[in-house]
């Protein structure tokens, strides 16, 4: 069944992407662990962690592409779901520190001791268990997206208005998580992690495993997203993107389709956040910043929205560029470059790298007839 | 015994004061100097009290010197030895070249020291400057020092300035409240005086009434406290309203440009905040230029900055519209992304040009300071910003409704193709409209430079709020923006005392998110065909 789906349902692009990811998942950790550091093919741990981070972003980008590229919902608040997933993972990691914190309190994380808190707040219960934390990684962003989407889609908030209130959502969360009283470490967030499932977070082997895990989750999410958009349901979702009112008049419950896609996407973003935190070693409220969510949008736009592979590609390309730019003498110019990228892509490459490349290939192969690629009506 | 003696003394002083201040000055002071020379504790103490009531110009210096043991007397001369060792004649204030023979320091005992302390406190009450008298009365009001009472009463009798007199009476009342041996009738009157004062400190003073007071007094105290508390709550509400209007006017200024670009043109301008920032930096540059070349014009710097900021932000706005946005009409989400990119570029450009730190923008004289109306503290800069916001709003409304350009703008908004067919150059109108919206954002920057930090991130902190205002008020309607801004501003300030600043803001964001569900197009939604556009 799955193989048939893989072979029949997958276009060449997707297959290449999957093969690449599977290769990365296997080869990078192996090269990091087995080859001697001097070897030409050796991947240093820092590079591996960095790429692990990129792949988390890629996962976030895919989740955003699912709602924006296929359902026309431009969420400017996907960073919130990402950060919530990250916080769920961070809370698990905090509990794993145990009495090894600075204050040596076996139950309370350091920042709570510092704030003179007597006992663990109720919402921290259960996070010492890994399965529970993982459930929360999916559930918390998913539930938030469900409730938010249920209200928003039912009352037909669309287009720009939806974008702005998603932005308000992540902004409200940013403000909330900055508060010390919230019990999430306030300004400093959660950090100083020690163990994950009993393995040292800093250890090379753990990092390799996390990298592999990120690749696996990326593959899984890609397959799920692909499955959704290629299914019958996906056809309706695309129809909603292109002509929402018409789809509604055809008898489809538009709000439910949107809600489903939005919630799934939020869960994916949560997973991305959860994978991101142990690799980066910190989660703080700045992840909720509206600017981060907008940046995610540009990854998708650059890679090519409505392609999934493109979104992942865009995330990796932009973040790689960011690393290169911000680490050298060009650091002050990174924002210029990023800003110019926004303008350039929207003006000249509305279909992103992948879409533009496709058009170009298509033209070279068979100049006639050029298939009119429907420009998705992004908003009503 | 003592009190009778004091009473008599006061009587003497008072009559003297009433007859002629000048005579009293000469008499009281001369008498005091002879007493100081007498070198007896009781004489010294009386001399101090006399000096206080005499309002001798050197009184403060003399009494202070006495307290420090720097007052020398002997042979009819009284000399103050200053801290740096110079000798000054106490009577005339003239420097003395050679130390007369037979001088010795006037001695102190505990009683004299206490009198000196009280006198130094009470001295200000007789200061020729009314402002200083009021300040001294305030100090006495807070200290409730019973020993100052005689001086206080003398001062009240002499006082001619109404404000100072009220302050003195309040100080007297504060003392009477704690002075259990004062006549009951006076104490009741004191409660009334405090009730009239009616502020937080009057409340504290009333509460300090000793527990063994008479039932009548306690009853009066209870009623006075209730009255003051009710009154204070009212003023607090008034103050909150004022803060709210002030915040609302800031929001209005920040959002009204957006109401034009977003509301009228349907363009999501994420770089709007940066236009505000450019306006603030223009103010900074104008002020720098004035500082270096024409310091005398500083008070007019804002007047100069206003048109400058409008032009700078407007020009940048037109450049953005012509360069980027016009290719993206009808694709609002792409516009959002492109303008976000522009905002990043502008921020970084300013950061590179002016540095990442806050820039100091000064306040001209007419903007600084504050005044009070009843229990309301009103700062001039806030007041001017409210006025300015109102003016900008009115001007914008007038432009849209009364000028040919406004007519064309509305025509293009309502039906672009029809307007074009009627000969309106829609492209030009688009550019001008966008320039107008951006220019108004620049004006907001001038105002914000007075109350906020001028940094490259200035715009970022307002962009989300501005969008909230426009979306809440209803797109395409300036009145909606006004109502939205004021509602959000006032609601925010009324929530703050209960929920804290951050929670209040979160509550408002959640409220707006929910509100949008109910009315997806804001408070004042456009009806009819424009909705479809």
UniProtKB/TrEMBL annotation, chain A:
Protein name listed in UniProt: Urea ABC transporter permease subunit UrtC
Designated gene of the protein: urtC
Q: Indicate where this protein resides in the cell.
A: Cell membrane
Membrane as UniProt keyword: yes
**A molecular-function term among this protein's GO annotations:** branched-chain amino acid transmembrane transporter activity
List all membrane-crossing ranges. Answer: 57-90, 102-124, 130-153, 160-178, 208-225, 257-277, 297-321, 333-354
Checking PANTHER family in the record gives: HIGH-AFFINITY BRANCHED-CHAIN AMINO ACID TRANSPORT SYSTEM PERMEASE, SLR1201 PROTEIN
One cellular-component annotation, GO: plasma membrane
Keyword annotations from UniProtKB, A to Z: Cell membrane, Membrane, Transmembrane, Transmembrane helix
At the top level of its lineage, which domain of life is listed?
Answer: Bacteria
> Is Lipid biosynthesis found in the keyword set?
no
Which InterPro entries does this one have? ABC_transp_permease (IPR001851), ABC_transptr_urea_perm_UrtC (IPR017778), LivM-like (IPR043428)
Q: How does it sit in the membrane?
A: Multi-pass membrane protein
Organism the protein comes from? Bosea caraganae
Automatic annotation (TrEMBL), chain B:
Q: Which GO terms describe its molecular function?
A: transmembrane transporter activity
Q: Give the signal sequence positions.
A: 1-26
Where is this protein primarily located?
Answer: membrane
One Pfam family in the UniProt entry: BPD_transp_2
Q: Which GO terms describe its cellular component?
A: plasma membrane
Q: Topology in the membrane?
A: Multi-pass membrane protein
- What InterPro entries does the database record attribute to this sequence? ABC_transp_permease, ABC_UrtB_bac, BCAA_transport_permease
Location(s), subcellular: Cell membrane
CDD domains (UniProt xref): TM_PBP1_LivH_like (cd06582)
Q: Does the keyword Transferase apply?
A: no
Parts of the chain that traverse the membrane: 241-268, 300-320, 332-350, 383-400, 467-491, 497-516
Instruction: Tell me one GO biological process term.
Output: amino acid transport
- Name the keywords, alphabetized: Amino-acid transport, Cell membrane, Membrane, Signal, Transmembrane, Transmembrane helix, Transport
What PANTHER family does the annotation carry?
Answer: ABC TRANSPORTER PERMEASE PROTEIN, BRANCHED-CHAIN AMINO ACID TRANSPORT SYSTEM PERMEASE PROTEIN LIVH
Q: Which family does it belong to?
A: Belongs to the binding-protein-dependent transport system permease family. LivHM subfamily.
Name of the protein in question: Urea ABC transporter permease subunit UrtB
Report the source organism.
Bosea caraganae
Taxonomy of the source species: Bacteria, Pseudomonadati, Pseudomonadota, Alphaproteobacteria, Hyphomicrobiales
Q: Which gene encodes it?
A: urtB
């Amino acid at each position: 069944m799955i193989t048939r789906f893989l072979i029949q349902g997958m276009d060449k692009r997707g297959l290449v992407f999957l093969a690449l990811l599977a290769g990365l998942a296997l080869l990078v950790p192996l090269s990091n662990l087995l080859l001697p550091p001097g070897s030409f093919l050796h991947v240093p741990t820092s590079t591996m962690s960095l790429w692990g981070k990129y792949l988390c972003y890629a996962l976030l980008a895919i989740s955003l592409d699912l709602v924006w590229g296929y359902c026309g919902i431009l969420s400017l608040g996907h960073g919130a779901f990402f950060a919530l997933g990250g916080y769920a993972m961070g809370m698990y990691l905090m509990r794993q520190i145990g009495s090894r914190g600075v204050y040596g309190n076996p139950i309370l994380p350091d920042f709570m001791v510092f704030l003179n808190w007597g006992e663990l707040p109720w919402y921290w219960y259960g996070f010492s268990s890994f399965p529970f934390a993982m459930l929360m990684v999916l559930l918390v962003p998913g539930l938030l997206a469900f409730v938010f989407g249920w209200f928003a889609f039912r009352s037909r908030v669309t287009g720009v208005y939806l974008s702005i209130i998603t932005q308000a959502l992540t902004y409200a969360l940013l403000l909330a998580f900055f508060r010390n009283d919230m019990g999430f470490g306030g300004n400093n967030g959660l950090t100083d992690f020690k163990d994950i499932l009993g393995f040292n977070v800093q250890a090379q082997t753990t990092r390799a495993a996390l990298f592999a895990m990120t690749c696996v989750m990326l593959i899984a999410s890609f397959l799920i997203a692909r499955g959704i958009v290629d299914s019958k349901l996906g056809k309706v979702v695309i129809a909603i993107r292109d002509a929402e009112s018409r789809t509604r008049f055809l008898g489809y419950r538009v709000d439910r389709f949107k809600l489903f896609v939005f919630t799934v996407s939020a869960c994916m973003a949560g997973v991305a956040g959860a994978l991101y935190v142990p690799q980066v070693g910190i989660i703080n409220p700045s992840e909720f910043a509206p600017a981060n969510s907008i940046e995610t949008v540009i990854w998708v736009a650059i890679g090519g929205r409505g392609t999934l592979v493109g979104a992942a590609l865009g995330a990796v390309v932009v973040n790689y560029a960011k690393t290169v730019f911000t680490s050298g003498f060009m650091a002050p110019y990174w924002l210029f470059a990023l800003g110019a990228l926004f303008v350039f892509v929207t003006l000249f490459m509305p279909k992103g790298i992948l879409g533009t490349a496709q058009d170009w290939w298509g033209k070279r192969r068979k100049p006639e007839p050029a298939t009119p690629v429907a420009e998705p009506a992004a908003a009503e | 015994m003592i009190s009778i003696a004091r009473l008599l003394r006061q009587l003497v002083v008072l009559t003297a004061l009433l007859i002629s201040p000048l005579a009293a000055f000469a008499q009281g002071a001369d008498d005091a100097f002879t007493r100081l020379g007498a070198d007896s504790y009781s004489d010294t103490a009386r001399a101090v009290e006399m000096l206080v009531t005499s309002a001798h110009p050197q009184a403060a210096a003399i009494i202070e010197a006495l307290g420090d043991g720097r007052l020398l007397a002997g042979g009819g001369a009284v000399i103050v030895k200053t801290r740096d060792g110079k000798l000054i004649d106490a009577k005339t204030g003239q420097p003395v070249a050679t130390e007369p023979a037979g001088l010795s320091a006037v001695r102190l005992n505990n009683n004299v020291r206490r009198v000196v302390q009280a006198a130094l406190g009470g001295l200000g009450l007789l200061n020729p400057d009314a402002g200083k008298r009021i300040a001294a009365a305030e100090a006495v009001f807070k200290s409730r020092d019973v020993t100052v009472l005689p001086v206080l009463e003398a001062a009240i009798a002499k006082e001619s300035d109404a404000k100072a007199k009220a302050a003195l009476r309040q100080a007297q009342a504060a003392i009477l409240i704690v002075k259990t041996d004062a006549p009951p009738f006076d104490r009741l009157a004191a409660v009334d005086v405090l009730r009239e004062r009616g502020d937080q400190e009057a409340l504290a003073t009333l509460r300090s009434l000793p527990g063994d007071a008479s039932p009548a007094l306690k009853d009066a105290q209870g009623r006075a406290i209730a009255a003051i508390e009710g009154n204070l709550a009212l003023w607090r509400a008034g103050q909150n309203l004022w803060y709210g209007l002030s915040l609302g006017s800031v929001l209005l200024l920040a959002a009204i440009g957006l109401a034009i670009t977003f509301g009228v043109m349907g363009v999501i301008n994420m770089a709007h905040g940066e236009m505000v920032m450019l306006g603030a930096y223009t103010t900074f540059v104008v002020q720098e230029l004035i500082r270096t070349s024409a310091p005398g014009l500083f008070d007019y710097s804002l007047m100069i900055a206003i048109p400058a900021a409008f032009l700078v932000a407007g020009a940048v706005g037109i450049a953005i519209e012509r360069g980027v946005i016009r290719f993206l009409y009808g694709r609002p989400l792409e516009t959002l992304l492109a303008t976000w990119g522009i905002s990043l570029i502008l921020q970084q450009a300013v950061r590179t040009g002016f540095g990442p730190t806050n820039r100091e923008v000064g306040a001209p004289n007419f903007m600084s300071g504050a005044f009070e109306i009843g229990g309301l503290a009103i700062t001039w800069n806030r007041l001017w910003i409210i006025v300015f916001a109102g003016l900008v709003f009115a001007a914008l409304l007038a432009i849209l409704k009364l000028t040919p350009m406004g007519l064309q703008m509305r025509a293009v908004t309502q039906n672009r193709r029809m307007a074009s067919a009627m000969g309106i150059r829609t492209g030009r109108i688009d550019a001008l409209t966008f320039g107008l919206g951006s220019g108004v954002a620049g004006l907001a920057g001038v105002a914000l430079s007075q109350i906020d930090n001028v940094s490259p991130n200035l715009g970022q902190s307002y962009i989300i709020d501005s969008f909230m205002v426009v979306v809440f008020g209803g797109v395409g309607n300036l009145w909606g923006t006004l109502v939205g801004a004021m509602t959000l501003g006032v609601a925010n300030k009324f929530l703050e005392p209960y929920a804290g600043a951050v929670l209040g803001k979160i509550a408002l964001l959640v409220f707006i998110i929910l509100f949008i569900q109910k009315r997806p197009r804001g408070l004042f939604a456009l009806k009819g065909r424009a909705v479809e556009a």
